[in-house]
Specification:
about 500 residues, alpha/beta, Rossmann fold, six-stranded mixed β-sheet, 18 helices, about 25% strand, globular
Amino acid sequence: MTSLLSLNGIAKSYGPIRVLHGIDLDIRPGEVVALLGENGAGKSTLSNIISGTVQPGAGSMTFQGRAYAPASPREAMDAGVGMIHQELKLLPALSVAENIFVGRYPMKAGRLDRREMEARAQAGLERLGLDIAPDRVVEGLSTGRQQLIEIAKALTLNARLLILDEPTAALGGEETQLLFRQIERLKADGVGIIYISHRLDEIRQIADRIVVMRDGAKVQEFDRGDVPVRQIVEAMVGRSLERMFPTVPEPLPGVVLEVKALTGAPGTFQDVSFQVQRGEVFGIAGLMGAGRTELVRAITGADPVRSGEIRLNGDVLRLRDPSDAIRKGVVLVPEDRKLQGVVLDHSIAENIAYPSLKQVAQGGWLSSRRVTEFAEGLIGRFGVKGRAGQNAGELSGGNQQKVVLAKWLAKDPGVVVLDEPTRGIDVGARSSIYELIMELARKGVAVIVVSSDLEEVLGVSHRIMVMAQGRQAGILSRDQANDVAIMELATS
């Protein structure tokens, strides 16, 4: 079959550092090619070259039989190439429809045709089963819903090639299946798709071929999608991977955190009760919109509580804001690390030191030397691949997550809440984060893990609470829990 897109010898360097080494790749009409690799393997650079964001240093491309060298994303879109980025790029003050058509608004008689814009936006939203008014402002929507709006935006491009970078990272199982059904329709229309994901179980469902990258080079290609996960992972990391998840230690006696009949703001969650012991990893599962994030934000003082109570070591915890929770030893690693976890244009050392400034300061004075010294020990302990003075925004997702963990764990908390701890993180970085979770458990810390990845929540948890439509559907022991039991509760 004639190639839709052909890459020949694509290379890219930043100064002396070569990030892509002569990549050859063909994408045919109506197929999904999974592009896999650890963070830093070169997937994003290659995608950005195809979508016109980055210019290659060497090599050439053809698209639909013609020479293709977009100088900007606008040129790529005009040629028929669209990309959905992993990081959300919506403008919160604009409406859903305005975000979908930003930069390409439908016009009539020289003015914005708002009726046409909202009608076309509504059609794109309905294709994804998304019940959101197109004139609603984006601000305040959940991360998962914003991700679906990004996907609806791409669908309105009528592109012949779509690049999907971690499209399901913020989605639950039901929303993911909606997207997969839409991808099948696009394939039937002859659209080529490059699919980037760290959720390897998805690849078996959606991919026709798999291309694996490592250290800026294409190292392996599989001519089918149903390749065993272990085989894919070993190609990605370049070594045998014996275990995805570490051994889960036994919890210790004594209840650290107790939640009784907790109810949040209307439409979030209600009547939730559970306990977490010392050294226990307590998983929370459920579909998008089930109230998981709202629950843990309330437990950590970020969102208000209407009724019920939270007890820490037997004492009622009264929280006005997150600072109250932090002082009591309850910390939250949020689901969106870039917006809520790190200050991207500040250094790694500054990010790690911010929660501990009183500890770092000497006589009430801060010095960059003391901040650096404080952070360097934690950088080494948590395996952050970066220099203390380097901006956090320059790090991979996995290393940014390690910075967030380092800054909170430096305070020796009694309760650590992790909301989607490995979202958008590669397999190698996931393993190190799972090890950190088990290290916390061994030290007697109560850990709560919220995850949309069923394999993850099953792999790290002693018990799993499943939420459905804002309510507690059930709590499963490690022996009782499996993907079928969780999904039956989540859809009840």
